[in-house]
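Hello,

Our lab assistant flagged a job as stuck in the queue for most of the afternoon. It eventually completed. Since we weren't sure the result was trustworthy after the delay, we are filing this so someone can double-check. Below is the sequence as submitted and the structure that was eventually returned. Let us know if re-running is recommended.
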Amino acid sequence: MQRKFPIFTVVALLTSSGLIDAAELPVGETRLSGTLFLDSTWLRKKNSGIPDNSDANVDLKRFFFNIDHRFSEVWSAQITTDIQWMRHDYPDPWLRHAYIQGNFSKAFTMRLGAAPTPWRSYVNKWSGYRYVERDLTARARIGGGSDWGGHVSGSFDTAGHIHYAAAVMTGASYQKLRVGDIPDVSVRISWEPNENSAISLGSYRGRFAQDYGIRQALHTAQSWNLMAAWANEHWRIGGQYFYARNLYRILQPDSDRSYGWSVWTSMQLTPVVAVLARHDKLKPSTWLDPYQQDRYSHIGLEWKINSSLRMAAIWKHGSIRNINQQRQTIDEAGVWARIHF
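-- returned structure --
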């Protein structure tokens, strides 16, 4: 509990600084900004036949510090550091983004380096509460949120708005600088008939750079994703689904498949207060371990304190069942916060 006071002192200092304008940079200028995800929670784990294990602590889930620079009308660059400070662990720093971007037209933008992958950032934009919990595909470990490689994206004003994104990348994510025998490929295409709704399809194929050195890959993982969402100033409603083959069997001989789905909703009760809820179901192994199951839910209230600070009082519940039908339940309650400066 000794870490609580320094962290909330930092929060107070950052929120007093206000929100930096995120408008497009003029040529030749540099912008510094940052985002923190914090929580102060009580956590209890209960396993079949084992005494309960409970803990109360404060975590710095994420500390993103961004450096953006615009070289010309076309070329710009971004560097983002990512620091994690989880309970009972030492700080864990990473270089999350480090890319140069060429914005050639609305239909074609190119990024070279460690950049956001096509699927997760798009889903998080529509679900709206990444600081409370990562999305379903992150929990299922389908690739990373950022990866080293070549990334392209764009949009077309045809029958609404068609958006696309694709990446050829290492598959090891930004946390591991290694490559396998083949690159991983991720693609997404989205249709937004209006500013309040979206339908998106995605796919991922690769080996997550597990076949490096003398390690021989026996399978290539594949996944297919679907998201439908609707949002306006009062409501968010949406869901996503994935089906995958051999996500966790790259180096193992037997094939397997997995699937999962997630639904979410939130309602803005006042300009400051919102209520939110979400439920996930994940089946990590439907062929080799059909009894294995992972469920997750949360419900809570959010307060938008000002343009820099969002806070949410949340209760989370998780349940994991293995092949022996042993069950672990996880309950967590507390306050989550997002600070942007």
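-- support follow-up --
The delay was a queue issue, not a problem with the job. The result is valid. The radius of gyration is 21 Å. Residues 147 and 173 are 4 Å apart (CA to CA).
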